[in-house]
Specification:
Elements: H1 6-19, H2 32-41, H3 47-60, H4 64-68, H5 72-79, H6 85-103, H7 111-114, H8 122-133, H9 142-150, H10 160-170, H11 176-189, H12 208-213
Helix pairs in contact: 1-11, 2-6, 2-8, 5-6, 9-11
């Protein structure tokens, strides 16, 4: 952990454990492909909004076969509330078709295979690997990126890949997935983009954002 005080990492981890002792993905799903599609749909929107549309989507189209042959305009209408629905509706059909054609309707468990699926990038692959296959991974979304920069776990100009690599060095591998979920929840409900709960935060002494306010 060169360049970073071990005690500060310990402090961050202890606080995350205090706030979120049972962290988990907040996207609702019952089948492996439902999580994959839900994560793709979650780009640039909230998990709450995604859950509201997937509840309708997966009840109406309850198999991959039905999703692959769904009317594109109907898909657009269902997922319209989450934004960028034109592109995402195409991803839904393409993902379903791809899984049926290449993996007999199951979600592959290897990163290189996941990242070949339409609409799936590294962040989505990390979430799927972590939640479906218990693979140690840190997915860097907007919350994780923001929190990492504020807590000096990463630099202000670091991209998501750089942040991921830095977090992987700072946290032990066996807690990567756990820390990912905790950082997401911390950024979503505590260290928010607008009006973060700084006054009650036990990490404000190591927080760059808080120091800039002083």
């Amino acid at each position: 952990m060169i360049g970073w005080k071990t005690e500060m990492i310990d402090k961050i981890e202890e606080y995350l454990e205090e706030l979120y002792p049972n962290p988990k993905c907040e996207l609702n799903y019952k089948k492996d492909y439902e999580l994959l599609i839900a994560v793709v749909l979650s780009a640039q929107t909230t998990d709450k909004r995604v859950n509201s549309v997937t509840d309708i989507l997966f009840k109406k189209y309850d198999t991959l076969e039905k999703l692959s042959s769904a009317n594109i305009e109907d898909l657009k209408n269902i997922i319209r509330p989450i934004g960028t629905f034109n592109k995402k509706s195409i991803f839904i059909k393409d993902i379903a078709t791809y899984l049926i054609k290449n993996y007999n309707g199951t979600v592959p468990s290897k990163r290189e295979e996941l990242e070949k699926i339409p609409g799936v990038g590294r962040k989505t692959a990390n979430v799927v690997l972590s939640n479906l296959f218990n693979y140690p991974a840190i997915a860097v979304d907007t919350h994780v990126a923001r929190v990492s920069k504020r807590l000096n776990l990463a630099k202000a100009n670091d991209d998501v890949i750089t942040i991921e690599k830095k977090l992987m060095k700072k946290f032990k591998k066996d807690v990567w997935s756990r820390r990912h979920h905790q950082l997401v929840l911390f950024g979503r409900y505590h260290c928010k983009a607008i009006k973060p709960n700084c006054s009650a935060c036990k990490l404000k002494d190591v927080c760059k954002y808080n120091q800039d306010l002083l």
